[in-house]
Protein 1
Amino acid sequence: MYRSFVVREPRKGEFVRSIEEKDTWDLPAGELLIRVHYSSLNYKDALSAKGNRGVTRRYPHTPGIDAAGVVEESTVATFHPGDQVVVSGYDLGMNHPGGFAEYVRVPAAWAVRLPEALTLKQSMMLGTAGFTAGRCVEMLVRQGCVPGEGDILVTGATGGVGSTSVAMLAKLGFAVTALTGKNEPAFLLELGAREVLARGKFLRSRKKMLLPERWAGVVDTVGGEYLETAIKETRYDGVVTSCGNAASGDLTLTVYPFIIRGVRLIGIDSARCSLAVRERIWQLLATEYRFSQLDHLASVITLEQLDGAIQRMLAGSLLGRVVVQLI
Ligand SMILES: NC(=O)c1ccc[n+]([C@@H]2O[C@H](COP(=O)([O-])OP(=O)(O)OC[C@H]3O[C@@H](n4cnc5c(N)ncnc54)[C@H](OP(=O)(O)O)[C@@H]3O)[C@@H](O)[C@H]2O)c1
């Protein structure tokens, strides 16, 4: 028997969350049975936990798009009992029982070997949020952003993707401007932000098709009017990565930032990217992109404390990352 955080829908549209005892026999088929040591809280988990059908179609369900642990059973030659692995993305925690439980059973193709330089706990301090930040940062670099040659804007800066992006970019030597709705400048400056901008003062008149050029690159985690403004302010030949919709999924624009300034808008996904991409990004996270503040960025909670953290995430009041300890 093992413990699992379960979301049930006792009446249509009403969702309740509790910790239940389960049997590993109830887990879906898969080549790896993994004893989860740590998971982490991501925005998608909060949506799944509140009954968002765009994330999770059927309930009862155990969310948790991240899991880091030790293989207990394997039916493939590539993994053996005792191997330390990280599983994130694919359908884990969305429509497949996820990492908010002491066990997961998954296809072997979903698992990445834990990089040597990271512990299981550190891998979940990063989790999907840090992985997504790593993808955004790598994209900016691959598209030609160079430290010392222009400022990088990070939106939703105190969130999971935002805070890890700020720290990674600063580690690489970029001048980072952190956009936030919270009054937490010390948190962002300690992560390496050069400047902190208040969300309330950022938006400009929506009538303008272009705004004065400011950003060589952008990591946007919030979408909507913030992404719209950021694109209009991106300078000639700049790069904008879009990975989130914490504010809105809408985007209203003209083509002028693209055809007059050559701005590139690039979408970032972490759920369906290939194993080769996953292995490459996890290696970067463990080495070149690794930042010294990692061990202080996350708070560690138990399964019992998870519901409260989910509510704070939905209210937009969480700071940094939340790791769920299951051992
Ligand atoms: N594409 C992918 O594969 C992928 C992977 C991971 C996450 N995501 C998406 O990325 C986004 C961020 O995820 P996360 O895990 O970092 O979430 P998070 O920890 O909750 O951070 C989101 C941050 O966005 C800001 N925010 C919240 N509500 C807002 C609003 N109404 N208007 C403007 N800003 C707002 C807040 O930061 P401040 O208070 O500092 O402004 C908040 O901390 C989510 O939309 C998530 O679904 C996508």
Protein 2
Amino acid sequence: MAQQDPTENPIQSMLTLQEIAMAARQSMDPMMWDFVSGGAESETTLRRNRQALDRLAFRPRVLRDVLDVDPSTTFLGCDLRIPVFFAPVGLMQLIWPDGGIANQIRAAESFGILTMKSCINEPEIEDVAALSPGRIAFQLYVRGDADWVDAQAQRAVDAGCQGFCLCVDLARYGRRERDLLNGFVLRRYSPIDESTALAQLDWATVDRLRTKLDMPMIIKGIATAEDARLAVEHGVDVIYVSNHGGRQLDHNRGSIQMLGEIVEAVGDKAEVVIDGGFMRGTDILKAIALGARAVGLGKLQVWALAAGGEAALVRCLEILEEEIITAMGLLGVTSLGQLDTSYITAVEPVSEPGITSSYPRFE
Ligand SMILES: Cc1cc2nc3c(=O)[nH]c(=O)nc-3n(C[C@H](O)[C@H](O)[C@H](O)COP(=O)(O)O)c2cc1C
């Protein structure tokens, strides 16, 4: 077979996730790279997301038949080809003006995962829902009174979304010092003023929405067993463990450090998903072994979009799938359900955690 000419289709010729991250770095304006990739204040939470994942090693089992490995699962009643979904990421129209978040939605549809669409994405939910019926959840930042919130929820219902996600870790906008020092002001770009505090948002809001919404409800930004338990008591269907990728509260725990106590608190009363620092198939399998149903991609998703729109997003998922299948085979499992905490142990990390430290050839 003739060797593929990489100049013909540079995206298809990418073999590794580090190439996607590097292509994003090269194509993005440095201020935009900082906005997407940076975190709050000292970026301790951001780095801890990575460090906490790097502090986990596998305990593989051998001499098992791993000819047929199946990395699929279900989440929100939807089949996922790999245990991954696109986390809500706002303002994608600034990264890829041709279609913005529609690129993620099309890529998720063609590959076979689910997109959580942020309320601060263009196009609006009404204009993209038909691109991927049954594979979109709608994420809301509460920025209005009860009537406004209810109207947003109704939009998700009318658009036929699979779930309604309330993001609750943005009671204040995190101090992202890269953006402050770069003079990167979102108000200049967006009709939404990201610097304002949320409107009234408490458990009563959750209760009100729960009675009105006839669809699974997801709370994004749960960081403790206490709040996970409360969420279950308030009828929440999906606990989304997250520290907003280190963009909000600094000196938080790494998100994978929160997972164990939350999975234990929730039991089988809700699904648990997670995001924060996931850059590799092995990262994703660590979360599954600790009890998560699926993992959200934040920065990696945005980098793939910046690297080449829909095609690069699909390529990113294909590479992740290869990584996941390879690692499952090497762990001695053929389905995700076989993974449990016995496959994981604590170790010392081998490298300094950083934004791209998962990619040692990143330049
Ligand atoms: C550029 C960018 C925009 C984001 N916008 C939103 C948003 O609109 N709504 C939301 O709930 N989370 C938002 N997040 C947070 C992500 O949903 C997710 O929690 C986080 O990125 C996961 O960490 P990771 O980037 O290390 O994967 C955003 C993250 C990034 C990087």
